Amino acid sequence: MSPTKDQLWTIRRLIQWGSDWLGRRGIENPRLDVELLLADTLALTRMDLFLDMDRPLGPQELGAFKSRIKRRSQREPVAYIVGVRGFWQHDFQVDNSVLIPRPETETLVDSVLSLYPQVDTNLKILDLGIGSGAILLSLLTEFPNAVGVGVDISEDAIKIAEINRDKFKLEGRATLIVGDITSQLSIDTKFNLIVSNPPYIVSNELDKLQPEVKDKEPRLALDGGKDGLDIYRPLIPHAYKLLESSGWLVVEVGYDQGQTVPDLFKQAGFKDVSVVKDYGQRDRVVKGIK
Ligand code: GLN
Predict the structure, then answer these.
(1) What is the pTM of this model?
(2) Tens-place pLDDT, residues 88-99
């Protein structure tokens, strides 16, 4: 049933055992998760595992692997267990104080890139609700002359964003501030570009999400109130004030907010408001210019 001392537990057998064990507990892609957790335990890549399937694990490695599998069976996301998640060009450090960067959010980064074809442009970027830093730090990497400010209401999230900023050697170009999404920034500057992936899930819908999300990710980063728009309502006019003329606001939205959020943009005075779809053809990003 579980790996014991008297058996030789090779990578091959552990992948089999772990996939069965997690699969029986209702984990969706058990084999992939087991491979990721085993690779992490052994400080190897998944490819390394396949090249050395008959390698046995020592007792300490086995213990470390089992504790990861146990955490996963309790619905902790793999990204929190291994502590990193790949997004755009970087491996972001994550823990349960930040939302795990999603592939859909790369649509936002992509939309910004198409707004500014010249990568040497001198952008001043503000990220409202920065979380792990996925959006702002990816943009700073793409635009080598850009500088940015990131704000988050969670002090723990700002700590993670700082770790990532320093890891990617962007410390000279990003200022990170603990604060509310509409708080007055002590920085006396306007921005050319404001980005945000605010909480936008309708409160009542939250409990229908997978346990990995609803029980393990920060509610603060997900809960958009009664109609999912609670944060956009103050954020959009506030962003308008902080933008220079011809500055862009680019935000992520839920798949069913491709009508309501553009309306809020227009009410705030934004022009050229449009919706961008993600790779799954769902409305995902709204942008508008001041
Ligand atoms: N995309 C996330 C999810 O559906 C939600 C992110 C957010 O609220 N900003 O789990």
Answers:
(1) 0.94
(2) 999 999 999 999
Residue 60 sits in which domain range?
11-74
**Residue pLDDT, tens place only, 9-59:** 999 999 999 999 999 999 999 999 999 999 999 999 999 999 999 999 999
Pocket residue to mutate for ligand 1, from 197, 212, 231, most atoms within 8 A of Cβ: 197
* Domains: count for the chain: 2
Pocket test for ligand 1, best of 102, 105, 107 (most atoms within 8 A of CB): 102
Residue 2 clears pLDDT 90, i.e. is over it: no
On whether residue 81 sits in a domain, the answer given is no
Cβ–Cβ < 8 Å for 237, 249: no
Q: Which atom of ligand 1 is nearest to the CA of 209?
A: 10
Same domain, 64 and 205: no
- What is the Cα–Cα distance from 227 to 132, expressed in whole angstroms? 25
| CATH number for the domain harbouring residue 61 | 1.10.8
- Asked if 17 and 106 sit in the same domain, the reply is no
Cα 68 to Cα 72: distance, rounded to the nearest angstrom: 6
Residues 191 and 244 occupy one common structural domain? yes
Whether residue 27 is found in the same domain as residue 104:
no
Residue type, 94: V
Burial 14-52 (b: 16+ CB within 10 A, else e): bbebbbebbeeeebeebeebbbbbbbbbbebeeeebeee
Ligand 1 interacting residues, C-beta cut-off 6 A = 99, 102, 197-201, 213, 222, 252
Q: Which of 85, 94, 99 to mutate to test the pocket of ligand 1 (most atoms within 8 A of CB)?
A: 99
> Is the pLDDT assigned to residue 187 strictly greater than 90?
no
- CATH number, domain of 274, equals 3.40.50.150
CA nearest ligand 1 atom 7, residue: 199
